[in-house]
Amino acid sequence: MDVRKVVIPVAGWGTRSLPATKNIPKEMLPIFKKPVVQYVVEEAQASGIDTVVLVTSQNKTIIEDHFDHNLSLESLLERQGKTEKLKEIRDVANMVNIIAVRQKVQLGLGHAVLCAREVCKDEPFAVMVGDDLMFGQKPGIQQLLDVAKAENMAVVGVIEVPESKVDRYGIIDGEEYGSGVFRVRSLVEKPQVGHAPSRLAIVGRYVLTPEIFEYLEKLTPGVGGELQLTDALQGLASRRRLLAVKLHGQRFDAGDWVEYLTANIYFALHDEDLHDDLVRRIQELVPSSGK
Description:
This protein has 291 residues and is of the alpha/beta class. Helix content is 34%, strand content 25%. It has eleven helices and 13 strands. The strands form three sheets. A five-stranded mixed barrel has the order 8-11-9-10-12. It has a two-stranded antiparallel sheet with strand order 2-3. The protein has a two-stranded antiparallel sheet with strand order 7-13. The longest helix has 13 residues, at 257-269. It starts with a strand and ends in a 6-residue tail after the last helix.
């Protein structure tokens, strides 16, 4: 299974991050030195994916522009002799091929993926949620691609979450038949605490086969009145055509303020020039309990 395209839905309003997202897409909020969506695209690129399909909406063209050339800025940096910065922004423009598809009405993640059908056609493709970040020795989406290629079927990424948080995710019921690999029997979108089939929660990483579109077309509104991708995945699971992989690495949900701020600290601590001063300032702000 050769996957060259990734669908990244970025059409949502980002209400969890208001008022910061009143006029700026949540995917363009900065984490350390880059906007959130750039980390997602870099993960895809590092996994051999060369075409990004942005499922976008009105007033989101700034995301497309970020991955294009800014000739005025490049000219200014060139005149100023700032060659490192010039290379950095040119590298972003040359990172991947960008295709934009408009989602005119935001009807849920399942609908967003369906909007990309004419671009994906009959090819397998990845889906990466634009504000869900994964970092580790092996890119998150690569972990799924490896299993999808070996087993020739669709794969979703999962992590284990506390029982108290199962109502925030789609939860799988499955049987483990390899190390960290599960055959999915069923999926439940945001089950009530105490009624979830497991604590294995689907996060924003998927590798899908074209047959998913058959189920997406038949969807009716589910949880929250939206067309849920989880409900379409149940069709694959019912035919024993869906696997789940327990992801390894550090994950940040950039739509959650604690997670977003933690991600900024995480990257800043890995910067040699900032590390010591940042640790000192954090210690000043959070004194030890004995003082």
